[in-house]
Structure formats: C-alpha cells, structure tokens
Amino acid sequence: MSFLRPGIRTFWNRYKRALIPAAALVFLISAFQASLQRGDWAAVSGIGLAAAILAGLAVIEYRQARLARPLPGPGIVTITERRILYLGPHGGGTLALDDI
User: Fold this and answer.
1) N or C: more exposed end of the chain, with fewer CB within 10 A?
2) Any idea where the domains of the chain sit in the sequence?
3) What torsion, rounded to 10 degrees, do the Cα atoms 56, 60, 62, 64 define?
4) Exposed/middle/buried for 69, CB within 10 Å: 0-12, 13-18, 19+?
5) Partners of 88 in the beta sheet?
C-alpha cells in the first residue's frame, strides 16, 4: 500500500535524481549563511564549492529527467523446438507448445 498519490509517485520517480541534490543544496545554502555570519572563511569556501557542484548536478539531472521518455519498442519472438520465447523492452517470457 502506498501513501503517495499516483501523480506524486510518478513525479518522484521521474525527478528523484534531480530532487535529492536540490534538497542537499537547500541545506548547504543555510550552512553557507551560518558560516558567513560566523566569519569562518574556510567553511564558506568549502561549502560554496560543494553547493556549486550540487547545483550543477541538479541542473544536469533535471535536464535528463525532463527529456527522458519511456522507450516502447517491439519485442523479439523466437520459436525453437516447440518453445516460444518473447523478449520485450520491459520483460519477456517463454511458453512451451506442449503446455497449450
């Protein structure tokens, strides 16, 4: 049983690789501001570098998620020695003709 609505689950499954770095980026921005107020310049530079890397990663992952499409494709069917084999893009199976 899922506690998420189907639309939210679909959105999460599609964009989760972009949302995780974005959430970490929000945390790093708050840590960056706290370091600025304390005057800890070593932490500011390290956090700023990590935030820049995460921002770039989030943008790249967002672009990939936005352009990704499910790949419907034809399957391959082979018949060998009274056995039918189907291999599709999302699964497949076998069936013996003696079982029909």
Assistant:
1) N
2) 6-67, 72-100
3) -170
4) exposed
5) 91
